[in-house]
Design brief:
The protein has 469 residues and is α+β, with helices and mostly antiparallel strands. The strands form six sheets. It has a seven-stranded mixed sheet. Strands 12-2-1-16-22 form a five-stranded parallel sheet. The chain has a three-stranded antiparallel sheet with strand order 5-11-6, with helices on one face. It contains 15 helices and 22 strands. It is globular and about 65 Å long. The protein has three domains: 174 residues, FAD/NAD(P)-binding domain; 130 residues, Protoporphyrinogen oxidase, mitochondrial, domain 2 (Polyamine Oxidase, Chain A, domain 2, Alpha-Beta Complex); 104 residues, protoporphyrinogen ix oxidase, domain 3. It catalyses: coproporphyrinogen III + 3 O2 = coproporphyrin III + 3 H2O2. Belongs to the protoporphyrinogen/coproporphyrinogen oxidase family. Coproporphyrinogen III oxidase subfamily. Pathway: Porphyrin-containing compound metabolism; protoheme biosynthesis.
């Protein structure tokens, strides 16, 4: 393979930018990296905006500080790599609540994404079934089995635990339903212990015991200047050529690599590269794969997404509880599914004038009719429903913002990881210089997306003949 290499990264979200940084660090000197982003903005779901004169996140809010093995998360490592470690800040208030039966109740401790490891601790929120979780004399899951989270928990603990605890927890992360989402993908630690333990409570406790513990260490972090500073720094440190408003419409294999068809149909640009890293949502990836890898495209294209809207309001001196926010079970019949009290949760956002920032999310998979409301209707509905949950009228907002994220959150049905692994294996066999990365394959959250991009970059480096470092 000739050097320097030419690598195209399609997708300018945090996955693609993390891949670009990894390529810059590990590929031979002089490697030409080009990031193609079809919109005018980099960062994907990382977007810091401004409301009432203050920086506020209109997309992802924070990142996990630790990885599942207890080490520094990939997001933190990237933050350090691009020189932003001193900007990391942590929540000052961590306690959240659930809106159940019209009032707020603290999220019970001892759960794993809402699945209880102690039934007594959740009794105030959800009553387990009378004959809950009996030992059937065998592990809950077979060696290669995957099930929907809701199916397993309903069978072992009853409907209330799912509807009031697990479903709102998963809904807050995935905007999906516990009855549809894969246990192996969304709760891998629990899936592992469920292959050994005979009860669900026992599996939760085993998963918690196996998790590395760092007492007193913060779980979440964000950046004082906003997460868009990470986007900007990653783009800069990668040294990549960034092309905004550049839609890649087709991919064609050539004897030495790939030909990209970029731009409008009437005046396309043809670009020759040695390797391509696809860091776009699954459906966009499927369209590009349809020519060179139709079977992989068919598998990738099956993944569905949920759409959501985030409504942020600036409120003059509201009476807010000392909580980071609250989750809303679908059974409450409200449009909102979660709310975050930004200026309570994040001390660095508090203002001397008492103006508070509050954000709520709407939109659940399979029930996105709420997103047909106008921006003004969404703001009014959120204002009314949050007031109802808090039991006191909120003051009228002095400013508001509605951010709509169409097709934002992947919906991982049972068997997802096996399908992804098979697709990647087939793609590597046919086209080793073409790699897939992103939330559509490996999971949601900034650390997972960063790691996904870095792993794909390493695959490209290997396929092209190894590192120059």
């Amino acid at each position: 393979m000739r050097q320097p290499w030419r690598v195209a990264i399609i997708g300018g979200g945090i996955t693609g930018l993390a891949a670009a940084v990894r390529l810059r660090d590990r590929a031979p000197a002089g490697t030409e990296i080009t990031v193609y982003e079809q919109s005018g903005l980099l960062g994907g779901k990382l977007r810091t905006g401004e409301l009432a004169g203050q920086a506020v996140e209109f997309g992802a809010e924070s990142f996990l500080m630790r990885d599942p093995a207890g080490g520094e998360s990939a997001a933190v490592t990237l933050v350090r790599r691009v020189g932003l470690a001193d900007a990391i800040v942590h929540p000052t208030v961590g306690q959240a609540a659930l809106a159940v039966d019209g009032r707020l109740r603290p999220v019970p401790g001892g759960t794993l994404v809402g699945v209880p490891g102690d039934l007594e601790k959740v009794a105030a929120v959800a009553a387990p079934a009378a004959d809950a979780d009996r030992d059937g004399g065998r592990p809950l899951l077979g060696p290669d089995e995957d099930v929907a989270v809701g199916a397993l928990v309903r069978d072992r603990l009853g409907d209330q635990v799912v509807d009031r605890l697990v479903d709102p927890m998963l809904g807050g992360v995935y905007a999906g339903r516990a009855d549809d989402l894969s246990l192996v993908t969304t709760m891998p630690a629990l899936a592992r212990t469920a292959r050994v333990e005979h009860t669900l409570v026992g599996a939760v406790r085993a998963a918690q015991a196996a998790a590395p513990r760092s007492p007193g260490s913060p779980i979440f972090g964000t950046l004082a200047g906003g997460l868009s500073t990470l986007v900007e720094a990653a783009a800069r440190e990668s040294g990549a050529t960034v092309r905004r408003d550049a839609a890649v419409r087709e991919l064609h294999p050539t004897p030495t690599g790939w030909r990209l068809v970029v731009g409008p149909t009437r005046d396309p640009e043809l670009v020759e590269v040695d390797a391509v890293l696809l860091a776009v949502p699954a459906r966009a990836a499927a369209r590009l794969l349809a020519g060179p890898a139709p079977e992989v495209a068919a598998t990738v294209g099956e993944l569905d997404y949920a759409s959501v809207a985030l409504i942020t309001m600036a409120l003059p001196e509201p009476e807010l509880p000392g909580l980071s926010g609250f989750l809303v079970p679908a059974t409450e019949g409200l449009l909102i599914k979660a709310s975050t009290f930004f200026t309570t949760k994040w001390g660095h956002l508090r203002r001397p004038d008492g103006l508070a920032l509050l954000r709520a999310s709407v939109g659940r998979y399979g029930d996105e009719t709420s997103l047909q409301l106008t921006d003004d209707e969404l703001v009014a509905t959120v204002h009314r429903e949050v007031s109802k949950v808090l039991g006191t009228p909120l003051p009228s907002p002095v400013a508001s913002h509605v951010q709509r994220w169409g097709g934002a959150l992947p919906q991982y049905t049972p068997g997802h990881l096996d399908r992804v692994a098979a697709a990647r294996t087939a793609l590597r066999a046919a086209h080793p210089t073409l790699a897939l990365a992103g939330a559509g394959y490996d999971g949601v959250g900034i650390p997972v997306c960063v790691r996904s991009g870095e792993t794909a970059a390493e695959e490209i480096i290997t396929a092209l003949g190894g590192s120059g470092s």
